[in-house]
Design goal:
By secondary structure, the protein is an alpha/beta fold. It has a domain of about 280 residues. The protein has 18 helices and twelve strands. Strands 6, 7, 9, 10, 11 and 12 form a six-stranded mixed β-sheet that branches. Strands 1-2 form a two-stranded antiparallel sheet. It has a two-stranded antiparallel ribbon with strand order 3-8. Helix 17 links the parallel strand 6 and strand 7. Helix 1 runs antiparallel to helix 5, helix 5 runs parallel beside helix 7 and helix 8 runs antiparallel to helix 9.
Length: about 525
């Protein structure tokens, strides 16, 4: 079946919405078994590292450990309190808490991350199949976006929400295709709430995508713009329950909203969607994807499925207009970009019907995917080795210790990252210690009480940058060591810090070191 969409004035990509009930003979890339096989390959880069080397993951693991052991640990209750409440940032927290009797937090998080990566890839391919009637050979170009910047940053709850969002888009479209609107309303009342609980940004991305899908569907059915917008809004009403909850939680929804219209940063995000450790390779990869989208927009060898193209475009507009921080979560706008680009790629289908040409496109897409996965696997393995070298310090930290962690970090504008930002949090996971650097997020269930620690409690106090890197360039190792409330701590842990920067302070006694790290016991006057 083929339906022409009544486009006007070029406001959306001109497209033909097509569905074919079966792939042409010999289209091996469209078979279910092949889609499953490709989805499973997303697990490969995550198998070797005990903890995936993602920037924020260590802070999340620390919070999970506190949640799980707050009642059993003889130390945590001195510094922390856990007050569970309904919020839009709980996905992985609830999953880890549910699995805690069977698995520890590190094991559960690893399994959940692998599952999320596989589900995201499978969901992308399912979206392409639902939109086109079969999986186009170009769809595999979208799969590497699973490991885009949000994943590399270790936004675990958001990553899980996107793993849910793509299959839910498929369900939404399938129920709409069957005109089972009442069933869809009943199903998505709880599913929309579940997605919001997992992460508000994932819920928001899903809402924007399905609104665009409904808008195009209404236009396809011949409705004018006002009626189409109204119809799309009504269709999405079952997803609005979280809005009521956020409004009822006075002040929470708007707390921590900042960083409006940071255009240079947004431009950087557009170029850095696949940012990892290799500047040239990462930029070339994302330029290839943008080139494919441009071909689709121009009708040069590819056409764009209107619903997915509109969803992609609307998500990109939201990215441009929304602030960088929402509810205390940083880079909220950036998180939408891989999803937007993935939908644009998934909207593409080749205009050619030549089986040889289609096969060549499939091979090219799979070669791109395979190369990205191979480089990612090696990259994470190397990062894991460096991180383990630093984590050896924990063997010398007694349980229940109070630790100041200070990580020497490259400038945030530098493409590569050593992933040491929150590494000190692993002392919380392994030693029930107190370590500075936990996030102060209004929607979080974790409460911290350590007034005697002064400024060495929350995230930021552990991060040391070279001069000129940040607005607070005066905060270096020398200043940090001069302002520590030494009576409130037992150890100072210097992470990824070269020897030339190590202190010579009588209050600090070296107990462990490596080439770029050192652990000092604080000598308290009462014990001298």
């Amino acid at each position: 079946m083929s339906l022409e969409v009544p486009w006007k004035s070029g406001l959306m990509p001109r497209s033909t919405i097509t569905r074919q009930d079966a792939p042409p003979p010999g289209s091996w890339w469209s078979t279910p078994w092949f889609a499953v096989l490709i989805s499973l390959t997303l697990a490969v880069p995550l198998l070797q590292p005990a903890v995936a080397p993602l920037i924020d993951i260590y802070g999340h693991l620390a919070r999970f450990a506190i949640d799980a052991r707050i009642d059993s640990s003889p130390y945590f209750h001195h510094w922390f309190a856990v007050q569970w409440r309904l919020s839009g940032n709980l996905g992985m927290d609830l999953l880890v808490a549910a699995a805690e009797p069977l698995l520890d937090v590190v094991e559960t998080t690893k399994i959940a991350l692998i599952a999320a990566a596989v589900m995201t890839a499978a969901g992308m391919l399912a979206v392409a199949k639902e939109a086109h009637g079969r999986i186009p050979p170009s769809a595999f170009f979208a799969i590497p976006l699973t490991f885009g910047m949000p994943f590399q940053y270790g936004f675990l709850n958001y990553t899980l929400s996107i793993a849910f969002a793509f299959p839910l888009i498929v369900l939404w479209m399938r129920l709409g295709r069957g005109r089972r609107y009442r069933l869809r309303t009943a199903v998505f009342l709880p599913l929309g709430l579940l997605l919001w609980v997992t992460h508000v940004a994932g819920w928001g991305a899903f809402c924007v995508a399905v609104f665009a899908i409904e808008l195009v569907t209404a236009r396809r059915d011949g409705r004018g713009w006002p009626r189409a917008i109204w119809s799309a809004g009504l269709a999405c009403l079952p997803l609005a329950v979280p809005i009521v909850i956020m409004l009822a939680q006075s002040g929470t929804a708007s707390a921590g909203v900042a960083q409006w219209f940071s255009w240079l940063l947004k431009l950087f995000f557009v170029a850095a969607i696949l940012r990892d450790q290799h500047l040239g390779f990462d930029i070339a990869s994302v330029m290839l994807l943008y080139g494919l989208v441009l071909c689709g927009l121009r009708g040069a060898g590819f056409r764009m499925e209107a619903r997915l193209a509109c969803a992609s475009g609307l998500l990109f507009c939201v990215f441009l207009l929304m602030p960088g921080m929402v509810m205390g979560s940083s880079f909220t706008d950036m998180r939408l970009l891989p999803c937007a680009l993935a939908l644009a790629i998934l909207s593409l289908s080749p205009t050619t019907t030549n089986h040889r040409h289609l096969t060549m496109i499939a091979i090219a897409a799979l070669a791109f995917l395979g190369t990205r996965l191979a480089v990612q696997t090696v990259s994470w393995a190397r990062l894991e080795d460096r991180l383990q070298d630093q984590l050896a310090a924990i063997d010398h930290i007694p349980s229940g210790s109070r630790v100041v962690a200070l990580a020497d970090l490259p400038c945030e504008a530098q493409w590569t990252s050593r992933r040491m930002d929150h590494l000190g949090m692993m002392a919380i996971v392994r030693r029930d210690a107190f370590v500075n650097g936990l996030w102060d997020i209004p929607s979080s269930q974790l409460r911290i009480h350590r007034p005697e620690a002064g400024g060495f409690v929350y995230a930021g106090s552990q991060a040391l940058f070279a001069p000129g890197c940040r607005y607070d360039e005066g905060y270096d190792l020398q200043r940090a060591l001069a302002t520590i409330a030494y009576a409130a701590f037992d150890f100072v842990w210097l992470i990824d810090t070269p020897r030339v920067k190590w202190p010579t302070d009588a209050r600090l006694r070296l107990v462990w070191s490596t080439d770029r790290g050192a652990l000092y016991r604080i000598v308290h006057r009462a014990s001298e």
